[in-house]
Design goal:
TesB_C, hydrolase, Acyl-CoA thioesterase
Length: 292
């Protein structure tokens, strides 16, 4: 093995989300060896953003994405993304994305892109929290607490860095403690991203899925890893409010606003360091507890 091969650049989230055109409006997300057999929903979301954007001409950033997860995807096989143009107006373009694996549809989504315009502006939500630099990194926190080792594993598998000002819901429920279905944290990719606004939008879509569904388990003293627990995203929507550098620290506020009928609905707000609201997220997921 050559020295150049041994010292190859480490894989970044841009590499993980990368797709390539296989003809017309079809794109391929290659199979990747991961520690989990199922594809993390954020990967499918991010690749759908990239596929749809590749069919839109001009400077029209994504402003909305509504998705439905129909079947699990598996990391040992490629995923094909077909993009159909639904509309190209004077300022807005809309695309339908269909993801298939082994000739079965696993995901559908509708993405909308808008030419930047000036208009009325306000945001109702604001945030106040400690700077990420003032919160202990996970590596040091894990060294002090065995119960936080799950977070170290999460960072490795998602390639995201997290900093929690308060105890994460997952740590409380693992100890059998009931907590309110709210959590807040700073998050960013472990490695920098290329200067491509489409990639940053895709990564924002990717990280919007991180930990959101588990927020609903706070009052129930359960984790998604408990025996007899079945969970899956049913639908996931992201509204992109502004072009956002996704490799800087982002403040993510999450809340589980409802649970029942083996489902849960969670909502998230993602802010830039400056306090500007970057995205709003709503997710519905299946959370079913089966007899052990």
């Amino acid at each position: 093995m050559s020295m150049a091969t041994q010292t190859a650049d480490p894989v970044s989230l841009a590499d993980v989300l990368s797709i390539h055109r296989i003809g017309g409006s079809e794109f391929l997300g290659p199979a990747r060896t991961t520690s989990a057999p199922r594809i993390f929903g954020g990967i499918t979301t991010g690749q759908a953003v990239l596929a749809a954007r590749a069919t839109v001409t001009g400077h029209r950033p994504i402003h909305a994405l509504q998705t439905t997860f129909l079947r699990p995807g598996y990391s040992d096989s490629p995923v094909t993304y077909r993009v159909d143009p639904l509309h190209d107006g004077a300022s807005v373009s809309t695309r339908l994305i269909t993801a298939t694996q082994h000739d079965r549809i696993i995901f559908t989504g509708t993405a909308s892109f808008q030419q930047p315009e000036h208009g009325l502006a306000h945001q109702l939500t604001t945030f106040s929290g400690p700077r990420p630099e003032d919160i202990e990194p996970t590596a040091r926190a894990v060294g002090k607490s065995r119960s936080s080792s799950w977070l170290s594993a999460l960072e490795r598998t998602t390639m995201l860095e997290f900093r929690f000002p308060d105890t994460p819901i997952r740590m409380s429920t693992a100890r059998g403690v009931a907590v309110d279905p709210h959590q807040k944290f700073w998050v960013r990719p472990v490695r920098p991203l290329p200067k491509d606004s489409s990639v940053h939008a895709a990564v924002l879509g990717y990280l919007s899925d991180a930990l959101l569904l588990s927020t609903s388990l706070g009052p129930h003293r359960k984790t998604l890893q408990d025996p007899g627990m079945q969970f899956a995203t049913i639908n996931h929507s992201v509204w992109f409010h502004s072009t956002c550098p996704a490799d800087d620290w982002l403040w993510y506020e999450q809340e589980g606003i409802w649970a029942g009928s083996a489902r849960a609905v969670c909502r998230g707000s993602i802010f830039r360091r400056t306090g500007e609201l970057a995205a709003t997220v709503v997710q519905e997921g299946l959370i079913r507890v089966t007899p052990e």
